[in-house]
Amino acid sequence: MHEMHFLQDLATVMLVAGVTSVLFQRLGQPVVLGYIIAGVLVGPHALPALLIHDESTIKTLSTLGMILLLFALGLEFSLRKLRKVGMVALVVASCEIILMLWIGYEVGRRFQWTTMDSLFLGAMMSISSTAIITSALDELGLKRERFAQLVFGVLIVEDILAVVLLALLTGIAKTGGLQPLPALAVLGKLGLFIAGSLIGGLLLVPKVVDYVAQGGRDEVLLVAVLGLLFGFCLLVSRMGYSVALGAFMMGALVAEARSLPRVERVIMPLRDMFSAMFFVAIGMLINPRQLWHYAVPVLVITLAVVVGKVVTCALGSYLAGTDGRTSVRIGAGLAQIGEFSFIIASLGLSLHVTSDFLYPVAVAVSALTTLLTPYLIRASDPVATAMTRCLPDWLRGVLVAYTRWIGNLSLRGQSALVMAMIRRLVWHIVINTALVAALFLVTAFAYRHGFFHVAMLSQHPGARRSVAWSVAAVLSLPMLVAVYRKAMALGMLLAELAVPVAVGGEYNLHIRNALARLIPLGVMCVLALLVTALASTILPPRQVVWVLLLAGGVLTWLLWHVLVKVHARFQAALLDVLSRGDS
Amino acid sequence: MHEMHFLQDLATVMLVAGVTSVLFQRLGQPVVLGYIIAGVLVGPHALPALLIHDESTIKTLSTLGMILLLFALGLEFSLRKLRKVGMVALVVASCEIILMLWIGYEVGRRFQWTTMDSLFLGAMMSISSTAIITSALDELGLKRERFAQLVFGVLIVEDILAVVLLALLTGIAKTGGLQPLPALAVLGKLGLFIAGSLIGGLLLVPKVVDYVAQGGRDEVLLVAVLGLLFGFCLLVSRMGYSVALGAFMMGALVAEARSLPRVERVIMPLRDMFSAMFFVAIGMLINPRQLWHYAVPVLVITLAVVVGKVVTCALGSYLAGTDGRTSVRIGAGLAQIGEFSFIIASLGLSLHVTSDFLYPVAVAVSALTTLLTPYLIRASDPVATAMTRCLPDWLRGVLVAYTRWIGNLSLRGQSALVMAMIRRLVWHIVINTALVAALFLVTAFAYRHGFFHVAMLSQHPGARRSVAWSVAAVLSLPMLVAVYRKAMALGMLLAELAVPVAVGGEYNLHIRNALARLIPLGVMCVLALLVTALASTILPPRQVVWVLLLAGGVLTWLLWHVLVKVHARFQAALLDVLSRGDS
């Protein structure tokens, strides 16, 4: 009987969604709106004849839709692309998100909503919709233009920041407020987790996917990729982060596989089916009568989103050195909210910190801004012209001067080379430090989940902790050696720069040497503190620590060359995966 | 929490299935076996660590797998292909199914199993596996050979007969035995339903699918096709037939759309994901310990399937006029059981008429025969040679004579032309009669479900019945006129053949005329009886019938030309859909 109900629900959802999506396609509107309308129709508030029997099953399937949606976004994201769009996208996205968070919060407070509601409203308003922009630019035939490339860059950065935002909001909702230190700890742990699994994943996932793809059967490839995806989502959610993060990261990892086109071909239909479910489930939460009651906030928020996003994104682009016309076009392209806003809204609901009305309001605002998007993009050129004409002369002068100044900012010649070297060394140190910290974190996580409670060790918690700690330490030895070597190099480079040959006479060499030693020492101290703080649950008793450290030192001394070689090979493999598409 | 469990189950299933399917692919074995093994591993009987939390969700998804599996089979099936392979496939499939049903039943009885268990065992043994044969022939590179084409023809016919078998088994299980008359009624109704929805569907479904496909978005096409599929499955299951039938028929209907390749591209990944679930769910039902207990039956049944299928299929092919060597190859290709056997086994379980052990036994036999299939196909040539050598001379003579006789059987010249004309007329009469009957059946079904209980009519059941009956009658007028005209033509043709010019002298014309009138009269009487019997629930009061008949007669007389035109257009549209691919 349960299966019959399920079939009936599925048939209802798919039939109604089919009709509305065909209709919206014919009307030239985004299909996503059709799905949401279908959800309103089959939901508990509209037509009783179409009522769904088992909402929970539809919602479970919609979770799958969210996972596949973000996985597909991750597939289109790539670390290489991100490096290309670089700073401009980062500036625009940060500017947009921070300002929109603030605007959204203020709007919420004006309506006398609670702090949490206002905060979530700000978060919802801060992230634009990749799905809607992509389809709008596609339909307008503007996908290849320069501004569109910048918009996609901003969207990529936004997707990452949105995931961070999700983690932050979860933290705030659970602790009740934003304490700077715990928030930093949350962010730090999250960053370490992301860095660790990205690097570990880059070494493993593309290889596994390509190995499976070699077999030549789409069926097996699909099942294996889904296994990786769901498995990783499960792990991520067990660690207390959102499945959205896991899905996006797994997508970014699979995107580095050679067989990406085949993966995309088999995944897209699944994404289409389940994301239809996702949007239908969103529609099902809307009560049209309640929406009518909130008509004023919906209109105000819509206005705030459109005006706010156009202004903040255009401002960000301009500050990052883009010309005025392109900046306005970028702003117009990003002026709507979509799937991430729904994810944030549902997060608020599931954490029981936001009010019921917030979700339908977000959906209504998304629908209105989505409808406006194509018109805004078309209108951006006249708007830019009008804005330029309205500016007072002195402001126009300042703007032109700013554009010229930022254009001259980049370094040239030898100092640029030295800066590039320093930047590379710092990057190496940061990444390897992050990896070490991530290793200790993962070991601590495994320890908490009883991974080291094997029979032989179960007698003595101290012994268990020592083993766990030793495992993490041994595994991180190649990274530790790398950090030390890069820190040495950095120290020497900085010493040479800081103490010119003229200074200090015969002591010159000694001063340089001292400086060159100080930097690796400092780096290692920071690393030690970090590890001690992060892995406090698996810190062995003090006397054991000293023994272990001594043993580790001897081991490092003996195996120095092996460790250097291991790390070099590891780094080469990583660079190979990342540079594959460039060649 | 429910969603987390669901995600965990999905992750477990997909991870284990991913590993086993990659493994089986590397070993060169069918991936399906990998899925089944994965099911055993995550099922309740093997590894407690991998236990699935919510079996019912996995089973619900496996129902989707079954629907999509049969839909994909239907997509590959096409009415045109069926016309080409024609009689040979029908003879082989009928021969195989009837004999294997009997062999299976006898085997079951020898093991002292109940009548129902034995009957279902026979049914399971009677249908070969399209999925396994297709992949085996693909891997052996034999897909283009003539015997492979015949094998595919047999599989198509088998798929149809299997669906009929499912309906019959349901009937038997519900009534407790096979009474000839109710069974015939079930079969007749089923045939009418299939004919009616195939013809109605051919006029509608390809057009709808092509219309949606014109929009150009795969997403919308996918959702619309799924809507049609699930909706039709729901209707079919509401009418008391299996969803498998609905899925297969909808596949056959969509297969006539011009945009079939696109539909196949978007549907296949979904089928792959959910059919993996389907086979995993099958594996979950297996208890290895129980299977060990039933090792002897499994081996005996495996032997019976292999030997029985090779012999019965080869016999059927030979009787249908294929040469000996090809016949043995066809037999070897068809010697295994697969997905349909699982569907039949699960039908028995869900109707509570078969024992628990039957399902795992079927799965084990399927696994063994699947493993044997490639070897059997490779061995078929030597086997055929050996068999020819072993035959006594007289039998070989008989066989050669039979082949020659059946080769000479087909008609030639004018009589062949006349036979073709008669066959066409009979077909037209049968199809139109079936359509009329189907129309009345559907109206009666709608009546029973309160479709005619509108306020105005609700006072008087007689009035309601009259309205329903009139609707059906008016809708079937074009078909009735067509039946009458074709019957007239048939009558004249037969009269001319039966009464040569030499007979009867001057009365010759009168005799011919009388004969020519008798046949349409007889056909109309049969039709009237059929309608009365089938639509007894909506038969109006007697005096109303006469009035309605009179009104119908006058209407027919007035609109004769219109009705002929309507039917001609209808027929032209149908032929257009069917002949599309030929041009």
Q: What is the 3D form of chain A?
A: globular
Structural category of chain A: mainly alpha
State the CATH class of the largest domain in chain A. Mainly Alpha
CATH fold description of the largest domain in chain A: Na+/H+ antiporter like fold
Tally of individual domains of chain A: 3
* Strand tally of chain A: 0
The main pleated sheet of chain A reads as: none
Q: What percent of the residues of chain A sit in helical stretches (DSSP H or I)?
A: over 70%
Q: Summarize the largest interface: chains and residue counts.
A: A-B, 55 and 54 residues
What is the CATH architecture annotation of the largest domain in chain A?
A: Up-down Bundle
Q: Report Rg of chain A.
A: 27 Å
**Roughly what is the average pLDDT of chain A, rounded to an integer?**
81
The run of helices and strands of chain A is HHHHHHHHHHHHHHHHHHHHH
Count of helical regions of chain A: 21
Terminal residue distance of chain A: 57 Å
State the oligomer: homodimer
Protein name (chains A, B): Kef-type K+ transport system, membrane component
Family (chains A, B): Belongs to the monovalent cation:proton antiporter 2 (CPA2) transporter (TC 2.A.37) family.
Pfam family, one (chains A, B): Na_H_Exchanger
GO biological process, one term (chains A, B): proton transmembrane transport
